[in-house]
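tl;dr need the bound structure. longer version: we got a ligand (calcium ion) that a collaborator sent over and nobodys looked at where it sits. i said id run it. heres the input, straight from their email, havent touched it
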Amino acid sequence: MKILVVEDEQSVSSFIRKGLEEQGYEVTQAFDGTMGLRAAMQKDFDLLILDIILPGMNGLEVCKKLREEGETAVPVLMLTALGATDDVVTGLDAGADDYLAKPFKFKELLARVRALTRRKSLSKATKQLQVADLEIDLDSKVVSRGDKPIKLTAKEFNLLEYLIRNKGRVVSRVDILENVWEVNFDMGTNVIDVYVNYLRNKIDKNFSPKLIHTVVGMGYVLKESYDENS
Ligand code: CA
């Protein structure tokens, strides 16, 4: 597993690098946004850990640029300042998959890293999943509806995969948090709603039937339904 750490604070960067290397990850460091973006575009990484506050181009710009350039598959973990909730939403909008507030304990970082990189190692078993005319390929990460290709970020893909695997079953926000984000601590469930909306805009908005349905007071269910009220 190759991880790119983009962080200008030497102490934080080496704390992350040492910890991850002890866990067997291969770590590349970049110390400003421009270097980080260049490295991310040139090499194939399994994960990017991206600090928001960086000299030159900040982390949000790096992430946005990366996604615009078509690097949609690599998961991005954003590091934010504690309590900066605006940064969290902006970060997710810029295409980050998850975030971690500074200061953090290494085990918290590791939990996020494992969750975000897990998909890649799982996808060894080749599989395709389908609901109505929506198809997802777990190997190539290609998603399509009615033969139209749909670009999803890594997190959106994981969320969709989870919903499809639980097709017809109502899953709660906590279920989603635990299984897709693999965390059950300190993260509000509103991030789930934000992501479900991203996913809806991509896979449901211009298509029929709608597949993702809200079950008031319970959560979400993915099913083929022509019922306007569901
Ligand atoms: Ca920084």
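gonna send this back to them w/ a short note. The pocket of calcium ion is lined by residues 7-9, 51, 53-54 (CB under 6 Å).
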